[in-house]
Request: fold
Amino acid sequence: MAFLLLLPYMDISTLDFQQARIKQVLFKSRLRSVLYGVREAEDSLFVLRENPLGQWLYTVVKPKYSEFAEVRAIEQTLQAMLDTGRDLVRQYQRDQIEQARAGLEKIEQYAAQIETLLLKLEQHTRTAV
Reply:
């Protein structure tokens, strides 16, 4: 019975990291849809503590793993990605549509950095358990 109780704890960690990756894809999808005129920009999308990935960072990761350098790096990189996303929306709103869409490449670069950091953090948390 103890094994059954331990198994969900291990799955939660893996599931949490999968959900973080989904949240990042969701952010990129929402930003892209704004820059292609499908939806309006919501301010909360660019606020670290209101962004789904930021919420995950503050509610799931930081309480348990704030001592890891990757956590701070994810937070800083995510903030830079959100700031860049906000800037791209402002460009779009000023009718600099092509420049704004071209800026999605920078978002992809931040996302790749975050993915690398998530992988490192996931490895650290597995060895810390």
Remarks:
- The chain has one domain: 15-128.
